Structures are given as structure tokens and as C-alpha cells.
Amino acid sequence: MASRFVVGDRRYAIIAFFIFALGVFLTAARTVKQYQTPGPFDPSRQGMCDFHNGIYFPTRAVLDGISPYGADYAAANPVARQIPFFLPSILVLHTPWVVMPLHVAEVTYFLFSLFMIIAIGAVVSASIGRPIRADLTLAVAAALVFSRGGHITLFDGYFTFELVLATYLAIHWGDRRPWRAAVMLAVVASKPTYILPLGFIMLARGNVKAIIIGAVLSIVAAGIPFAWIAYHEGEGDIGRGIEILRNDFTESQEIHRAQDDESPVFSWTRVDALAVVAKWAGKDPKEAAHLVAMFVFLIPSMLLLHQRRRAGLDDGLVGVTGALILLTSLVSLYHQSYDTMLMVGPLAAVLMKTPSSWASISGFWRLALVGLWSVPLFNYVSTRMIMGRIDVGPMGVRVLTSINGVCLAAGLVILVAILVQKRPTQPGA
């Protein structure tokens, strides 16, 4: 039986490994040097801050039956603030870390994140072509570690790598292994801004069974810890506990939206199209505007995917199908710069010209897509660290912080235009 794993080009594998190892070493060194002691947020020392604020202490609170969305939790724990609204199911998945002492948990989570990076690389390699190649896996891993999103996720200790891997596997399994895809969708559902666009567009792709099962699993996975928290917060009265949770959600979201890095007008990290428009309009959009903008971008992509499905065209995670799903998800609804790691798979596939759907696109447009997708991944200029050291003025700040969103939106428009122009007459088209 043929091996499932091969080295590929040994020289490239060695080079990729050393680049990956260098990136890990530099990130680990920065994490130690700029380690943030749990407590108030210090922008000059962010090492593992998201692990403290978004994983360790909130998970411990959930297990104790305390709402991590409430002001009482924030006051009683060494955190910057209560967590924004994402489902407690993702916190429950991190239970193994809260039984460890904090520093042990930090080290093991850093190592776990490295495993997630390698796993993402392996999924990309498998999607481009089997057997899984070590050289390609390590090349993708190295690109992730040196990407803006990958570096900051590893440095801050957030769970974005888990969301990226779950999103990839949901798309990869969506059309043939619905139960596996559903489990991954239940993980993705923990963050509403991920699951909303992804769910709609996977429905258009025809992954109905995966979506339905995933919805049921998500409700169960979130409902149990929510009920646990409500029971304890309400001191045995679940109805009262639900009301407390509802108030906590409202307050948490208000605090969350008030942060400069969340407001589309002031954020240097938002990459969705509406955030770019709001930045130049100088006005925060209402909640309804986010939904309208989402469907403005979703509908054309959904129609294209539906048309391609009826023609029997689906080139998978890293083909034009996956690229369209991922790009539409990023552009259509609230996403931060670290979420642009989602594009590393399609980017690798375009460079490899595999599957054949990429080879059928002219070299000029492939190069344009590579450039537009690479900018958000590796743009370190549009960061607080760089912009704090150079004076570019208010106009310069707006331009620099809009680049990522503009590149993603332009990449989506070009991809949609290419697919509209190409008639879906044969697989791989």
C-alpha cells in the first residue's frame, strides 16, 4: 500500500523546517520577553495575553458556573475585561489546560498551537495532492508562523489556529463526510462571525446534511454549558440565570464594540469590506448594516457555487471552490487580520497550480490573486507597533489600515469575475 506521507523534495523540506524553527524561536523569545502578567491589558507586553483573557480564566469560570461575560467575573479575575460573545463550547474544549498551573498551561498551549500549525499544513498538502508531503506541509507551517496573523496568534495565545483548522476540515469533508464536517462546524460555530457566512455559503455548495447535523451539535455543545452557567448564576433558578446571562451578553458586547481595535472607524486590524467603508465614512455602522453587507457579498458567491454544484464542479478546499468560500467569509462579515490565515491554503494551491482549475486561469490573474491574498497575510506595516513609530498622519493611517480589506475585496471581485466569465461545462473549469 502506498505511503500516506512522503518527504517530497528533501532540500526544500530541510529549508522549510529551518525557516519554521526560526519563526518559532523568534516568536517564543518575544513571548517570554514581552510576557504579560495576567491583569490589565498592556499593549507593550502582550505575550500570552489572549490565553489569559480568552481561554484560561474564562474556561475556569465556566467550569465553576460563573458567567465569563459578566462584570463580576472581570472584577474577580486577573483579566483585562469580560469576554465578547462567543459560545462557551470552545471554552469547554480547553478544559485540560485549566487543571494545570498557569505557566505549565501556557507552555503546553504554545506547543499545542505548533501542532495546530503543522496540522493545517498537512491538510493543505493533502488537499493539493496525496500523499501528504513533508516539504509542502513545512512550507505552509513556515508561512503561517511568519504571517502577521500566525505570529500574533502564537504570541498572544489565542485559539484562531483551531478555528482555521476546523474551517478547513469542515470544507474538506463537507461534501463527502457530513458527520465529520458537522463536528468541525460545531467548533467553528463557537465564533458567530465565522459560522454565519460559512454556513450560508456551504448550504449553497450543497452541504445541507453537514449544516443540519452541525447546527444540532452546536446547540447541544453550547446549550449544556449555558444551562450550567444559568443554573449557578441564578442560584438554582435557570430562568433568572438566563436573564442574568442576557444582560451580561449586552454589556459585554457594548464594552467589546467600544474598543478601538473593534470599531471599524478606528481599528487597524479589521479586514471585512464594511469596516473599510466605515473607516472612510467616519461612522460606525449599525448591526443591521453588517447583515446587509454580508448578504451583498454572499449572494453572488452562493449563486456561483450553486451553479457549479449543478454542473458537477467542486475542486475542494484549496481550489476555486474553497477560495471562493474562504474569501467571501472574510470579506462579508466582521473579521480581524489574524483570520486572513484562512487564505494560506488557496494561496499555496495557486502557486502550485493545483488543482487544475488554477492552471486554467491566466498567469496574469493568478499573479494578481497571489499578490492580493499575500498582502493581508504578511502586511506588518499596518500594525500598531509600526504605525506608532512612524508619523504618517491621519490620512496615512486610514490608508495603511484599509490596505488589507481592500486587497481581500479586490481579490474576491476578481475571482468572482473569472468564474462568471468561465462557463461551468466540465470538472476543473
From TrEMBL:
Molecular-function GO terms, alphabetical: hexosyltransferase activity
InterPro entries for this protein: GT87
Compartments, record wording: Cell membrane
Pfam families per UniProt: GT87
Coiled-coil positions: none
One Gene Ontology cellular component annotation held by this UniProt entry: plasma membrane
Record key words, sorted: Cell membrane, Membrane, Transferase, Transmembrane, Transmembrane helix
Transmembrane segments: 12-32, 107-129, 136-161, 181-203, 210-231, 288-305, 317-337, 357-378, 399-420
Family: Belongs to the glycosyltransferase 87 family.
Protein name in the entry: Polyprenol-phosphate-mannose-dependent alpha-(1-2)-phosphatidylinositol mannoside mannosyltransferase
Lineage, opening ranks: Bacteria, Pseudomonadati, Planctomycetota, Planctomycetia, Pirellulales
